[in-house]
Amino acid sequence: MLLEGKNAVVYGGAGSVGGAVARAFAREGARVFLAGRTLATLDEVAREIAAEGGAVETAQVDALDEAAVDGHADAVAARAGGIDVSFNAISHGDVHGAPLLEMPFEDFARPIATAMRAQFLTTRAVAQHMTRQGSGVIMAITATTARLAIPEVGGTGVTFDAIESLCRQWACELGRYGVRVVWLQTTGLPEAVTVDVQPGYGTGAEDGMTREELFAWMRRSTMLDRLTSLAEVGDVAAFMASDHAGAVTGAAANITCGQAPAR
Would you place residue 147 in the very low, low, confident or very high pLDDT band (cuts 50, 70, 90)? Predict the structure, then answer.
């Protein structure tokens, strides 16, 4: 098992991405600590993991609450004997489907501010324990929106750019303590989207697209003619958190199916 004997915290563990990563971590032998704002949904994921024989615990934690994040990390480290892996899958409150010319600044800036606060607080909290033990892996998730010019996605591209930049800075500051910082760069994740797309999303078109039309448009931008699956996100996260990826830090695991600007 890739993560046998490891303690892993997953922030946003009740969401589609967080749940997929948590299941993969548990399957590879990690003891998983799910953190999020809604205990009921965290418990649903925990029951699935436990049913497969995984070790899992849940805690209600608001990733934007500094005291709550620090307290939770301290409690996990004290109970488990340390924190080996952290994965942040917190949602950002993005607003899509409107041009910047028509978007209130608050809608544009919200995901940037939310992501930066959540990423900073959770990383700092676990890093304080990882640096003392001389090892650890801190992980985030972004998407090709960080490097492609896509219209009408509000602050999402800037948010992902900021996450990647912050990860690089954490990596260069934590590396001397034996702590790695990496992120997964994905395509859009069809399994994580459950609603129809707002007008013009990602295309600049005046008319809206259905969910199926959007994903067909996105698939055409990839070399493999498909989009990243949640299972692949979980599998790659487990590998990147393992000692097999011990030489990787300050960098992305590119799981974009070879995505390039849409054609």
Answer: confident
